[in-house]
Amino acid sequence: MNVNGFHGGYGGEGSKTVLPAAGMVKLDFRLVPDQDPERVVALLRAHLDAQGFGDIEIVELESHQHPARSDLAHPFVQTAVRVAQEVHGQAPILNPSSGGSGPMYPFMRHVGAPVVALGIGNVGGGCTRRTRIFCGGISRMGFGLRRRFWGRWGMGLLNPFSV
Are the CB atoms for 128 and 136 separated by under 8 Å? Predict the structure, then answer.
């Protein structure tokens, strides 16, 4: 569970010592495979009720995104690993789960292919003004990685739908 922010009462200049009439917390949940988004919301509701917070309203701001994770042993994924090692000269860091979300589940479920994110950044992140020359080099290498990876796929050497 991520807590995105809290709000309640007066937030402007000066002080106001009045108790706020309402408060708000914004949450999101990063699900793992086999978790159902609707069930997670129901469990949150049940937990709040059990703690005596039945008056708290849950407002769902966006549609649910089902979790998904590609099989790291899949040939499509392994080709990405090999190409990354060729381009960067070292084994890549594999993150089976991401801190962000995207349309992996519908793609994997309806298209039937694994998903691979070929990152461009450095592992520490933080491409700031001081590191822009280094990060520029990383970006060029990242684009080269993608070009080589998709070149293999386009030549028929790689089929993401194979098992």
Answer: no
